[in-house]
Prior knowledge:
By secondary structure, the protein is α+β, with helices and mostly antiparallel strands. Helices cover 24% and strands 26% of the residues. The protein has 7 helices and 11 strands. A hairpin with a 5-residue loop joins β5 (129-133) and β6 (139-148).
Amino acid sequence: MPQIRSSRGPGSVAAMADDASAFERGPSDPRPEPEWVSAVTPDVDAAMRSEGRSMLRLLHQMRVDLPLAGSVLASTRSIDVRAFEPGADDAAWLSVNNRAFRWHPDQGGWDRARLTARLAEPWVRADGFLVHDGVDGDVDGFCWTREHPAGPAPDGAEDPAMGEIFVIAADPSTAGTGLGRALTVAGLNHLTERGLRVGMLYVEAVNTAALRLYERLGFVVHHSNAAYTPAHRHDGTDGPATNPDPETSS
């Protein structure tokens, strides 16, 4: 199986991992940029390590058939969602996003300028950025979706058209309420209504809470993408960077 080696994340991973170097590198760090490998295999991992590189991050691409199984829909709480309103929802969304992803090297620490820039990207559809309002009327969770046309896969085959859960999070204060699951299902239902028959997302391998949630919804790992750096990290360890406080977010 061919792999893509790049200093940027392959495919959609680049959009989620465009600041990966900030997690391990200081402004004067002389080391080369992390190198992403798409559809990494044990043999490729061994080859990278033989070059003196260690794994910094591991992202799983997970997929699920759409529409979701009836049993999944029946066991998920129903919530109302609406389209994100640029400007009016910015502050509330940033607050939820940055609390939910305070541990994340890429998705945490966003500001209004970064959100505005992302909203201006050509793939963004206004009706695909779903938010949920809490009892106080403020946004307490969101599911941002993205649509991908059919095209070449990392293994050289042809990928079908897919609907991606691009980024999703619930405010940490809602933990245990089932909001994360409900938001995921709402996003996948939206993609189903858009005519997509495959749902997809990327999730950090260390985010075990999110992995368990997605598996319960029927997702399976399709392939994994890994970021490598030189063998010695700042903390002297090897392997993926750890998530100190997993949230139901990806």
